[in-house]
Specification:
six-stranded mixed β-sheet; alpha+beta; globular; ten-stranded antiparallel β-sheet; 775 residues
């Protein structure tokens, strides 16, 4: 990394030409050797970002982080910057989701009397939660520390892939204790009296330094199992087990039930730091113990911390940027960091894992099983980013989607979490991820097996409106919630599944699915020029307001979107799609109208529709490809302008610096890819549409020792328009480039200027492809 200057950025305003961007002269900062220094895990922990600041490894099973709240939409990760107290430190967290679960195995270091309940966030004196010193709070990749002011305990956290390691420094000369709260977890905050629903919990003391246990949780992922093994660096003096907050017999060594807790007492807690290591498993306690022993056999906290940092340094170095303003580098590398947190590892060191059928399985040698696939979000940009810059990991992550579909009684995955299908969101976008991987030559996929796993869903199943979709060509909103969005998303999944079928040699299936993928046309109302909800009798829903979410109270026609946003949801067959608007000029005008419409939203709109520029909503995924659609209209310079505006206005280096939920890396992956100047509008096609590269130079490790260098010559805050492009020294007149070209490595050079070059990408032959690969 070269020297990184500090840049005082002013707000970038949307509009014709993005006129008026100004920047102060950069001041040089001292060179930094570590990319980890640019990562700020607190970005996204405020506002509606829903991220956590604690310790994790890339795609690790353990996310060891403080819990400030387990009851609230903005506490879906267990942490929010505005909360003033910490309940304790748990071992599993979701990064940026809109639904809540996890927070498994809460460890609470404490002094004074034993308190068994956390108390309310605004009343920390009523329970075991403690206020904390914000100035003492520090987070970096693989490490977190904080001072708990009420108990005067310094807490430090680090991790391996399957083990969380704690170090607690108690006040000198004072006794203390650890509370392990197995009842703690996320709650359904929309209920009047929410409780974490736990069954089949167990705790067992082993000797005087080990506690093992398990629980089955019935929250968002109902019925998931988690097992743990906790070991201490020195023996406890005595232990007390509790059930339903009542103490068991003093000599009890085991407890079973629902609400279980354990207190481990240390009269000499302040003598030396107390270390706690916790291994997790989705299979059994023996797996948790094996993971613990294999990954952290000793007590070298600082060694584990250094190893975690080195792991992150290697992962982050897959993309290196040069001569970036320091604030932009911080946003970029934090974005890359967030992009590497999920999917999460969910197999033990011996390869065993709990499958979607709740049975024990074992991965083939050299492979791993994963969980936490936020597919409705991440198929758009995260998976293409991993395929380009982390191809080996991407191959492993994608390969697991096929056995997952085979194991699950619910078929292809929608939103799987720790062996359970949550069913959240629309579509089965695992098909998109797999079709993208096949088209880009990602290794390890059997085309025949893949198609067999999806064919039943494509042609036989009648779930979630599929029967209506197949009979009518659309899903009526008076019969199926969010039917308008489902129609559009099922059409894109048909497009993806057509490619899966073609790869398997099932050409008749591919032809049928290709035709059905054009069902998006049945949702379009030519009289209003919007994708519009329809009833089962074929009529359009009235009254119609394109900013509205649904046609009656609490009955939504669209998924986290309205007609303005859903009208641009189509990502495939784009040259036929634009004919709905009268051709390329009509679609261009409609895009202009989207970005300049009033941003006022009707009452009751979900908070997911955020980051509004006109009616474009960057804070939610359905809009993420939309700025790039100008490229298909022959107006690529407008893509450049809007993308640069979004890069500068929708991301900031502060806790509330994300315009919406992080959504398991998708929000950040958009920034990473767009800052590089590339975007996969239709991941299945394997084409990256150019945007407006942000940095003078970037280098991407694309696998097998190959490097992709991207240069933006003359780029500056007021020079964001592409004048010309070369690829490996030869003129490149297309406004896109194929994955097969980039994956070989090479040098992509953009010449940037302060005025648009409308001729670049204007010719029909220069525009991105949108024709099936098998046609």
């Amino acid at each position: 990394m070269t020297q990184v200057p500090t840049l005082d950025r002013r707000a970038l305003m949307a509009g014709a030409g993005l006129a008026g961007l100004a920047a102060a002269a950069p001041a040089r900062s001292a060179p930094r050797k570590s990319l980890c220094d640019f990562v700020d895990p607190f970005i996204g922990t405020g506002g509606h970002g829903h991220t956590y600041p604690g310790a994790a490894l890339p795609f690790g099973m353990v996310q060891l982080s403080p819990d400030t709240s387990n009851n609230g939409w903005d506490s879906c990760s267990g942490y929010h910057q505005q909360d003033g107290s910490i309940m304790g430190f748990s071992h599993t967290h979701l990064s940026g989701t809109g639904c809540a679960d996890l927070l498994d195995v809460l460890v609470v270091p404490a002094t004074g009397p034993v308190l068994l309940t956390p108390g309310e966030p605004g009343k920390p004196d009523d329970g075991y939660r403690s206020r904390y010193d914000r100035a003492s709070e520090h987070a970096s990749p693989g490490y977190y520390k904080v001072r708990l002011t009420d108990t005067r305990i310094d807490a430090e956290l680090t991790v391996t892939e399957r083990v969380g390691l704690h170090r607690y420094t108690f006040p000198k000369g004072e006794p203390g204790h650890l509370l392990i709260d197995l009842q703690h977890g996320q709650k359904d905050w929309w209920e009047k009296s929410p409780e974490t629903r736990i069954k089949n919990a167990s705790l067992r003391l082993v000797g005087d330094d080990t506690l093992v246990g398990a629980r089955q949780v019935f929250q968002w992922a109902p019925g998931r199992w988690i097992y743990f093994a906790l070991k201490l660096s020195r023996p406890f003096k005595d232990a007390q087990l509790y059930a339903a907050d009542q103490p068991l017999a003093a000599d009890a060594r085991e407890a079973k039930g629902e609400n279980l807790k354990c207190v481990l007492r240390y009269p000499d807690a302040g003598r030396t730091p107390l270390l706690v290591k916790v291994g997790l498993s989705g299979v059994d306690i023996e797996g948790a113990l094996a993971n613990l022993q294999a990954e952290v056999p000793g007590w070298d906290f600082d060694g584990v911390r250094r190893s975690a940092r080195a792991t992150w340094e290697k992962a982050l170095s897959s993309i290196r940027i040069d001569d970036a303003p320091e604030t932009d580098a911080k946003i970029f590398y934090t974005g890359l960091y967030h992009s590497l947190l999920a999917p999460t590892l969910f197999s033990d060191v011996d390869g065993r894992y709990r499958g979607m059928d709740q049975k024990d399985h074992k991965v083939p040698a050299g492979r791993r099983n994963y969980s936490t696939y936020s597919l409705w979000d991440t198929y758009r940009t995260l998976h293409p980013l991993l395929t380009l810059a982390q191809p080996d990991r991407a191959a492993d992550v994608v390969a697991g989607l096929v056995p997952m579909a085979e194991e699950s009684p619910k078929g292809p995955s929608v939103w799987p979490l720790q062996g359970i299908e949550t069913g959240t969101m629309n579509g089965w976008h695992a098909a998109v991820v797999l079709a993208e991987a096949q088209g880009k030559g990602l290794g390890g996929l059997d085309a025949a097996r893949t198609w067999k796993a999806f064919r039943k869903r494509a042609f036989d199943d009648d779930v979630l409106g599929l029967d209506w979709y197949k009979r009518l060509g659309f899903i009526p909103v008076d019969e199926v919630m969010e039917g308008a969005s489902r129609t559009l998303e099922y059409a894109y999944d048909d497009w993806a599944m057509a490619h899966l079928a073609a790869a398997a040699g099932a050409h008749n299936d591919a032809k049928a699915l290709l035709e059905r993928s054009r069902n998006y046309r049945n949702q379009f109302d030519a009289s209003t020029q919007f994708m519009r909800p329809r009833n089962a009798d074929g009529s359009w829903v009235t009254p119609f307001e394109p900013r509205a979410i649904g046609h009656m109270e609490k009955w939504r026609d669209f998924t986290e979107a309205n007609a303005w946003q859903a009208t641009f949801l189509t990502q495939h067959d784009l040259y036929a799609y634009m004919e709905l608007f009268g051709g390329e000029k009509g679609l261009e005008a409609k895009l202009d109208a989207l970005f300049t419409a009033s941003s006022e939203m009707p009452p009751g709109s979900p908070p997911d529709i955020a980051g509004l520029v006109g009616q474009y909503a960057h804070g939610n995924e359905p809009c993420h490809h939309v700025a790039y659609l100008y490229a298909y209209c022959g107006a690529h310079h407008k893509t450049q302008a809007q993308v640069r505006m979004l890069l500068k206005s929708q991301y900031q280096a502060k806790p509330d610096g994300l315009s919406g939920n992080e959504d398991c890396g998708q929000m950040s992956a958009w920034y990473v890819m767009s800052a590089l100047g590339l975007y996969p509008v239709d991941p299945v096609m394997g084409a990256y549409v150019f945007g407006s590269p942000l940095f003078p130079r970037a280098e991407i490790a694309v696998g097998q020792g190959r490097k992709l260098v991207i240069e933006a010559k003359g780029v500056a805050p007021d020079r964001f328009y592409i004048q010309s492009v070369t690829w490996n020294g030869a003129a490149h007149d297309r406004c896109w480039i194929g994955h097969d070209e980039l994956a070989k490595g090479g040098r992509l050079v953009f010449q940037m200027g302060e005025r648009p070059n409308p001729a670049f990408g204007a010719a029909r032959s220069s525009r991105p492809p949108s024709t099936p690969k098998f046609a």
